[in-house]
Amino acid sequence: MNVINFISVPAKNTINQTFKGKEPWEIAGMTSITILTVVWFYNFIFQEESIVERIKKSALKMVRRIPAVRNKINSELKCLSESFEEEAINRTKALPYITSLPNQGIDLNEILKLVESSVYLGNYDWKNGRVSGCVYRNAETDLRTLVKEVYSLASLTNPLHPDIFPGVCKMEAEVVRIACQLFNGDGNSCGTMTTGGTESILMACKAFRDYARDVKGITRPEMVMPVTAHSAFDKAAQYLKIRVRAVQLDPDSYTVNIAAMKRAITRNTIMLVCSAPNFPYGTMDDIEAIAKLGLRYNVPVHVDACLGGFLICFMRAAGYSVPEFDFRLEGVCSISADTHKYGYAPKGSSVVLYRDKKYRHHQFTITTDWLGGIYGSPTVNGSRAGGIIAACWATLLYFGHEGYVQSTKKVIDTTRFIEQELRKMDGIYVFGTPVTSVIAIGSKFFDIYRLSQALNSRGWNLNPLQFPSALHICVTHVHTEPGVAQQFVHDMKEDVATILRNPSENAKGMYAIYGSSQSIADRSIVGEITKYFLDAVYYTPKEECTTVGKENRIEFKTSNEKLNSKLL
Ligand SMILES: *Cc1c(COP(=O)(O)O)cnc(C)c1O
Ligand SMILES: *[C@@H]1O[C@H](CO)[C@@H](O)[C@H](O)[C@H]1NC(C)=O
Ligand SMILES: *[C@@H]1O[C@H](CO)[C@@H](O)[C@H](O)[C@H]1NC(C)=O
Hints:
Strand order of the largest sheet: 1-7-6-5-4-2-3
GO molecular function: pyridoxal phosphate binding; sphinganine-1-phosphate aldolase activity
Radius of gyration: 28 Å
Oligomer: single chain
CATH topology of the domain at 183-364: Aspartate Aminotransferase, domain 2
Cofactor: pyridoxal 5'-phosphate
CATH class of the domain at 183-364: Alpha Beta
Subcellular location: Endoplasmic reticulum membrane
Bound molecules: pyridoxal-5'-phosphate, 2-acetamido-2-deoxy-beta-D-glucopyranose
Helix content: 40-55%
Protein name: sphinganine-1-phosphate aldolase
Distance between the termini: 94 Å
InterPro entries: GrpII_AminoAcid_Decarb, PyrdxlP-dep_de-COase, PyrdxlP-dep_Trfase, PyrdxlP-dep_Trfase_major, PyrdxlP-dep_Trfase_small
Mean pLDDT: 89
């Protein structure tokens, strides 16, 4: 009672003093204005983006309003945009563009020829393992035939209609069950198939956001994730209006700092994210510790195993030790894993799994009052490709447990071999401990992008990383073919030695841009440049058109000068 008096008596006196002699309308007005100001202030402070970030952005925006600065930026952007388009044309090797529907349908063989010439465009020999990640297995003839047959059988089916296509729904249910079993889910575990890792992640974020809103009343959702978490989480945060609290790494292990993660948890936290393993460094966060945090603060934990999921769940059987990462840890509430990566299914499939149906319920989107009927759909799409589901299902059965274990053993053996050899080389270092198939390298002595450039001129394509500058190789089944890893190690050795002879030189061309773009403080400009890059991916010339000639063959009329000069 004393404490209450201690505070309330002076407060009472101050308020009475303030309103002394005021008329009732004045008191009501002042009270309303005070409340509105407090609410405005609260809304201003607590937004998805932190206040520091917003102040920085508006300052930079103001600078960009200065006419001289704006003109300079616009002309640079125009220039870049043109060079992106030129790159797009270069990439398609002057193959003519089709910009409108042909008047009549085209002959089947003609179409197949066009598809072939499109599919095999590009400078990298991905079939023979020159590319990091990207192509996870160069499908053997049997598997390819199987997938082709299965897809063509199922291409018209659509799981949106369980009454009409019960079989394809059963296949989806079985893929999900198989995955639950691989990740040690119990009878309550469940999930859905999606079209890829990004959608799986988006769905998990939606489920936890809505779960937190409905069960805990959280209306300003935040998620806590390592800075290494895949950018799909940022995408989900942007789509779903979730604030991201990014947590830094331990400098030695390149896994998330657990103490910092704990500090980032607030009463608005809807989920904790960790990766098994992450994309940039291939390291795995201490999922056991994070799962404990989840339990302690009653926050669901999502394990992103999109990349490594279908390796890591076979690693024990393949004779490697891995820390616990799946539903065996009580705090782990959901897992995303891509069947179209190390599951070797054709592109367009992934699974998102939950410990319990109560989470999956919040993934579903339901509209009860639509004029078209009650509409419930599990994922982003309405209609979904039954063919992809069937092809994924068939691929899982084609390999079987033993097939995946063998394949995992090969991929991990090859990765460990490459890692071992890289650690022996002077001038470069490996980030943390790669758990599955990704090895990231950096250098304290030279600009690592020069190594990219050198390897590129030998036909290798590695992934560049930033903050700090680094490269990684994601080893896939394609790299386990005889000689591929040896060749890679050999080329690395030579290139590193060459660069070390002259370590202070800088990277050139595109590689210099990678390096210097990190030092642009105004990230919105980097963002803008990226938008122009994406525009260029959708580039088609303005005037070109197609006609169907006499023999039902496609003929191109090109009026684009750049293209014409190349075609001649
Ligand atoms: C590939 C990947 C994703 C996203 O998957 P997509 O299939 O490309 O949408 C998410 N997380 C990690 C770690 C990945 O490697
Ligand atoms: C496109 O190719 C031409 C000729 O091969 C080359 O000179 C030019 O620099 C390339 N442009 C870009 C943007 O890569
Ligand atoms: C479904 O949605 C995804 C995005 O999540 C998209 O990539 C895909 O093409 C869509 N369509 C079908 C039929 O799956």
